[in-house]
Every structure is written in structure tokens, then in C-alpha cells.
Write a structure and sequence with these properties.
InterPro entries: DUF112_TM. Keywords: Membrane, Transmembrane, Transmembrane helix. With 460 residues, the protein is mainly α. The chain has one domain. 75% of the residues lie in helices and 1% in strands. It contains 22 helices and two strands. Strands 1-2 form a two-stranded antiparallel sheet. Helix 2 packs antiparallel against helix 3 and helix 8 packs across helix 9. The longest helix is centred in the C-terminal third of the chain and has 42 residues. The N and C termini lie far apart (53 Å).
Length: 460
């Protein structure tokens, strides 16, 4: 009983920490989910947090971030993160109509509602898929190879990403061979190199005179912050007064559908569900507010489903989110591992049962809503003003790059740092110019460590 109480308290504490931390990070525009969620979740794993605490930290962080990312998106007209890029068009239309506060409140409420729906549905779908887990694990190297090509094809780069997989995988195999000659075995360094790849590519671009000249600005960028308009009393607004019956119904439908489509790109599903819902509504204002409500809900449901379903059912990262931001939940050596020869796993899949995934998942969502929902609804204007006036974007970027380099030194010394920089540089430029996104890069890593040895064994 004492052990259970300790685990619940640790899960609650780490959930609170994740919700508070990522509520703040979500206010900073352009803070990509993988660049922020993956390194910090990896750090929590490496520090020895209990399995339930790791799960609640990740889920509470993801849910909170996808609520507060609505603040810069709606009030300033700039995407809060990668997922918010699918929302920026509708948000800007509502800004022009003079109702950005309406967009903000509906986005946040839609996200909270979808998160509450996504956890139980994700666990249910995982339970239905679990009987096929042993078969999938047996063919894990080939499953990863097929999944890598599928995720690459559905990325922004399409065939360019598919073709870029081969050289990217070969670079990882070559780096593994190099570090093995010096008796250094790396895993976390590859993850962090991929996670901070866009940041490393941007820093290297500054060293090139031509690119530096393109980035040069003559003055400060000016943003117009929408006014603060609070239409309720108290700290916690009533969600049912924020969105109407149709918006609740459409958001619930979108969250339910996208809780099952865990193998597809979350950004793509956000765009598609918005188009499907928008086509059913004729009145322009109602269409805009309903679509932006449902789309922000989909940013929550896709992240939750794409992390939980493969984790619960298979223990293998077989989705873009599982291979990207949620990667430390699956593979964080030496604590969590995926065996390259057999496909056997040792991670949260083995350490938590279905009811624990459900219980701690709902705890994480409730904690995130209790922290991020009233904060975003009541203090969005002041928070956005403070962040854009006082917080240095460069300082935030430097913090995450510094974390990646420290972990690289811890795992492999100078070789670890070189791997982080090399993978980050290559992955960053492939992502920038070919649309070879972070999810595809993570699948490339798994292909290198799982599929390539299996292919070589067959050829022998």
C-alpha cells in the first residue's frame, strides 16, 4: 500500500511539474514539441523517476502545451509550435474579424475536451490491438522498415523523404561502427541529435555569410497583441458556456476518430478533420469557430493516441509521435530498451498494466487542465505580453541545445557530442530543404538499429 501511495504521489508531483513547465513553454512561439518534450522526458527517465511519474510528466506536458500554444497563435498570429501551424489560418481570419479572444477560448476548451475523450479511447483501441502484439514484435525489424517508408511518404517531403531515408540510415550505421571501434555505445545521443536538429541547423546557418545576411533584420519585429476581454467571474470558467452544442459534438467526433488513426501524421490529421468539419457548415463565422475548436482538439487527441496506443499494445514506437516526442517512453538506454535482434521490449509497456495506463493517463489530463485551462483563459494577455517583452527566444533555444550537449558528454564524452552535432546538422538541413521531418528521422534511427542488422543477417 505504501508503495502504491508513493507511486501515486510521484505521478501527481511529476504531472504537476510537467503541466506547469510546458504551460510556460507553450507561450513561447516556435517551441517545437519534439525539441522540448523529448529531451526533458529523457531527462526524467534518466533521473530514475517511477514509470507512472514518467507517463504523467509526458502526458501532462503535452496536453498543457497544446492548450497554451493557442495564446501566441490566437493573440499574436504566430504559431505556438509545429501543431499550431494547422491552426494559424483560421486564427488569423478571426483576428481580422476582431475576435481573437473568442478563437483563444474555443481552442483551449476544444483541447481540454478532446484530451478527456482521447485517453479512454486510446486505451480501448490499444487493448483491441494488443492480441496482435506478439506477431508484430516477431517481425519488428520489417515492421519498422515498412513504417519508416510509410511515415516518410506521408511527410511533407513525400518521395524526397523516402529517398533520403537511405543516406540518413547509412550515416547512423557508419557512426555506430565508428563509436564501436572506441568501445562507446550510444543511443540517447542519437535521439537528442534528432530532437534538436532544427536548432543546430539554424545555428550553423548563422556561420554562413549568405544565410546570415538573409536572417539579418534592420529593426525589431512588431506584433499587435489583441486586447484582454474576460466575460466571466472567478478563476475557472465554465467550458460549456465557451463552446456551443454543435462545437462540442464536432470536437468529440474529431477526437474519437483521430484517437484511432494513430499511424498518420498529427498535423495532417488536424488539417483533414478541419476540412471535413468545415465542409458541413455554411455560415462563415460558425464555420471558423467550430473548425478551430475541433482542430485544436485534434492536436491533443492525436498526440495522446499516437503515444499511448503503440506503447500499450506493442511497446514499439510505430507512429510519428511515438518515434518523435514520445520516443523516450519506448527507448532510453540503459533503462528502457528495444532489442534489435528479437524485437523484445523493456519499457513502460512492461511496467504498467492497462488500468494503470488509464488511471495515470486521466490523472495527467486532469492535472494539465487544472493548471493550463484557467491560466490560459484568465491570464493569456498578460502572459503573452511578458513572454514577448522579457523572455529571450535565443535563451530558450540555448537551454535545449545545452541540455543535448550535456547528455551527449554524459553518455559518450567527445564522441557523444560529435554524434549529437552530426546527426543534428544532417537531420536539420534535410528537414529544412526536403521536408524530411523529425518523425521520419526517428524512424530512420530505428531502421538503422533494428532493420539493417536483420537485413544483413538474411543476406549472409
Amino acid at each position: 500500500m505504501e508503495g502504491l501511495l508513493y507511486e501515486i504521489l510521484m505521478a501527481l508531483a511529476l504531472g504537476l511539474f510537467g503541466a506547469v513547465l510546458f504551460s510556460a513553454i507553450g507561450l513561447v512561439s516556435g517551441t517545437d514539441e519534439t525539441t522540448t518534450l523529448a529531451p526533458l522526458t529523457m531527462l526524467v527517465v534518466m533521473l530514475g523517476a517511477p514509470p507512472a511519474g514518467i507517463l504523467t510528466f509526458f502526458l501532462a506536458g503535452a496536453v498543457a502545451k497544446h492548450m497554451t500554444h493557442a495564446v501566441p497563435t490566437a493573440l499574436l498570429g504566430i504559431p505556438g509550435d509545429t501543431m499550431a501551424t494547422a491552426l494559424i489560418g483560421d486564427a488569423n481570419y478571426l483576428r481580422r474579424l476582431g475576435v481573437p479572444h473568442v478563437a483563444l477560448r474555443k481552442m483551449i476548451t476544444g483541447g481540454a475536451m478532446a484530451a478527456l475523450i482521447a485517453v479512454p479511447l486510446s486505451v480501448l483501441f490499444a487493448v483491441l490491438l494488443a492480441p496482435f502484439g506478439d506477431v508484430i514484435k516477431q517481425f519488428a525489424p520489417w515492421v519498422f522498415l515498412c513504417a519508416a517508408f510509410a511515415i516518410a511518404y506521408f511527410s511533407a517531403g513525400r518521395w524526397a523523404s523516402v529517398l533520403a531515408l537511405l543516406p540518413f540510415v547509412l550515416v547512423i550505421v557508419a557512426l555506430q561502427a565508428l563509436t564501436a571501434q572506441h568501445d562507446v555505445k550510444l543511443a540517447v545521443s542519437y535521439f537528442l541529435g534528432i530532437a534538436v536538429a532544427p536548432l543546430i541547423a539554424s545555428l550553423f546557418s548563422l556561420l554562413a555569410p549568405g544565410e546570415r545576411e538573409k536572417m539579418r533584420r534592420d529593426g525589431f519585429r512588431v506584433f499587435s497583441l489583441a486586447p484582454d476581454m474576460k466575460g466571466w467571474k472567478g478563476y475557472f470558467p465554465n467550458p460549456f458556456r465557451v463552446i456551443n452544442k454543435r462545437q462540442r459534438r464536432m470536437t468529440a467526433m474529431a477526437a474519437s476518430v483521430t484517437s484511432a488513426t494513430f499511424v498518420f501524421s498529427p498535423v495532417a490529421m488536424t488539417v483533414i478533420m478541419g476540412e471535413v468539419i468545415g465542409a458541413r457548415i455554411k455560415q462563415a463565422y460558425e464555420r471558423l469557430t467550430t473548425v478551430i475548436t475541433a482542430r485544436n482538439g485534434v492536436t491533443e487527441s492525436t498526440y495522446i493516441a499516437e503515444a499511448l496506443i503503440p506503447l500499450i499494445a506493442f511497446g514499439l514506437p510505430l507512429s510519428p509521435v511515438a518515434a518523435g516526442p514520445a520516443a523516450p517512453l519506448f527507448n532510453a538506454p540503459p533503462r528502457f530498451t528495444v532489442d534489435s535482434a528479437t524485437g523484445e521490449v523493456n519499457n513502460l509497456h512492461n511496467l504498467l498494466n492497462y488500468w494503470e495506463f488509464f488511471g495515470y493517463g486521466m490523472l495527467a489530463v486532469f492535472v494539465a487542465i487544472l493548471i493550463a485551462y484557467p491560466f490560459s483563459m484568465s491570464f493569456a494577455h498578460r502572459a503573452a505580453s511578458f513572454v514577448f517583452r522579457k523572455i529571450s527566444h535565443e535563451a530558450v533555444i540555448s537551454t535545449f541545445i545545452g541540455l543535448a550537449l550535456v547528455v551527449g558528454i554524459w553518455e559518450g564524452g567527445l564522441l557523444g557530442v560529435l554524434v549529437v552535432v552530426t546527426i543534428g546538422l544532417i537531420g536539420g538541413f534535410l528537414g529544412r530543404f526536403l521536408g524530411f521531418n523529425i518523425g521520419v528521422q526517428f524512424m530512420g534511427y530505428y531502421t538503422a538499429v533494428l532493420s539493417v542488422p536483420a537485413m544483413l543477417a538474411v543476406l549472409r
